[in-house]
Specification:
CATH topology: Rossmann fold
Number of strands: 9
Radius of gyration: 16 Å
Bound molecules: guanosine-5'-monophosphate
CATH architecture: 3-Layer(aba) Sandwich
Number of domains: 1
Number of helices: 4
Order of helices and strands: EHEHEEEHEEEEH
Strand order of the largest sheet: 4-3-2-5-6-7
Helix content: 10-25%
Largest sheet: 6 strands, mixed
Length: 179
């Protein structure tokens, strides 16, 4: 895959503008209450760090690491918890921050994990991107930035074989460019 084959889907400006709007919604909802923001590594790292800069309440950041992708562009259909150590979240407002909800298996895994392990005050799931068309579970994010088509997206945290997470925009490559 060559970066010149990437077609831009969301520019840096579009991403940042939408993220500010999401943060405004969240500031209204939480109304100054403390939040534990749980960033799902590695893909959500850019989104989470930009989002929390616009959140006004007392906030702690936690990081967990999951993986579901096989090599380059296909999901394994199975979620692996690489590192999911979290503090005591009983009675807390938990905001899970993901890059993209695709099949929804990761989101379901995380929400089940939270339910089984903690009685939180609230658990909200936020994803920058929502690939609704690819869903195989009934999970829907409480907040999402953009609905996207069933394309393999790259950039702004989303990788291709570990590369391109550092792009400031999100693009996609045609299938032929990914082979
Ligand atoms: P799900 O469990 O919903 O199928 O997938 C969630 C994870 O798959 C995401 O957190 C992300 O890491 C990866 N993923 C899903 N779609 C894409 C995509 O279009 N591009 C990239 N780079 N990763 C994706």
């Amino acid at each position: 895959m060559n970066i010149n084959n990437l077609k831009i889907l969301f520019t840096e400006e579009q991403l940042q503008e939408r993220i500010k709007k999401l943060a405004e919604e969240m500031n209204k909802f939480y109304n100054g209450e403390e939040v534990y923001a749980v960033c799902v590594l590695k893909g959500a790292v850019m989104f989470a760090t930009d989002l929390v800069k616009h959140l006004d309440m007392p906030l702690k950041m936690e990081f967990i690491r999951l993986s579901s992708y096989n090599g380059n562009t296909s999901t394994s259909g199975k979620v692996n918890a690489v590192d999911i150590s979290l503090p005591d979240l009983n009675g807390k407002n938990v905001l899970i921050i993901e890059d993209i909800v695709d099949t929804g298996l990761t989101a379901k895994f995380l929400l089940d994990f939270m339910n089984c392990n903690f009685h939180t005050k609230s658990t909200k799931f936020c994803s920058l991107l929502d690939k609704k068309i690819a869903r195989v579970t009934e999970v829907e994010p409480d907040y999402y930035g953009f609905e996207v088509d069933d394309k393999f997206l790259i950039g702004y945290g989303l990788d291709y074989d570990g590369y391109y997470r550092n792009l400031r925009y999100i693009g996609y490559a045609e299938k032929s460019a990914l082979e």
